Backbone:
């Protein structure tokens, strides 16, 4: 498996204290994707006129800000609130700058699409975290299907066991 090279640089103590205080990881594997995304965002959003139409423009905004939120999330060592606020703040700043550029326009629907991209990633990460914490918290808890009005399946399809006669008859219908 390929691993990014680790580049360690001596950072002045006053900067290192701020980095440690805010849980930043400024390794090359976390900074390069963020720099690439920010460069892409500046070039496409501020410098060049892409000419992408209405529905596809919003899809690009949602996808870009979802990826940006993920890369900021990695940079801030999985601090979800900080990464969401920074990513959405960058979206607001980008739209404000576009308002002052001659060939671009500030757009509220673009800002909403940016927020949707950030919110999708935040919701996905929160859902994954809750699933993992639930799995760790209750690893041996059995489901009581009878209390839910359900019956357990007599076979397991993925285990390779033969199907029962009842299920073979129902599949022939």
Residues:
């Amino acid at each position: 498996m390929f691993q990014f090279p680790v580049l360690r640089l001596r950072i002045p103590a006053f900067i290192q204290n701020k980095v440690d205080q805010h849980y930043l990881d400024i390794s090359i594997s976390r900074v390069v994707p963020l720099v690439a995304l920010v460069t892409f965002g500046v070039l496409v959003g501020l410098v060049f006129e892409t000419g992408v139409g209405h529905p596809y423009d919003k899809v690009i905004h949602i996808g870009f800000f979802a990826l940006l939120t993920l890369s900021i999330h990695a940079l801030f060592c999985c601090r979800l609130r900080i990464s969401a606020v920074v990513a959405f703040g960058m979206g607001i700043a980008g739209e404000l700058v576009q308002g002052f550029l001659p060939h671009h326009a500030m757009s509220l629907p673009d800002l909403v699409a940016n927020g949707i991209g950030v919110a999708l990633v935040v919701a996905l990460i929160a859902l994954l975290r809750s699933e993992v914490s639930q799995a760790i918290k209750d690893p041996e808890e059995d489901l009581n299907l009878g209390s839910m009005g359900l019956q357990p399946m007599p076979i397991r399809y993925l285990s390779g066991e033969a199907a029962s006669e009842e299920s073979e008859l129902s599949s022939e219908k």
Notes: The mean pLDDT is 78.
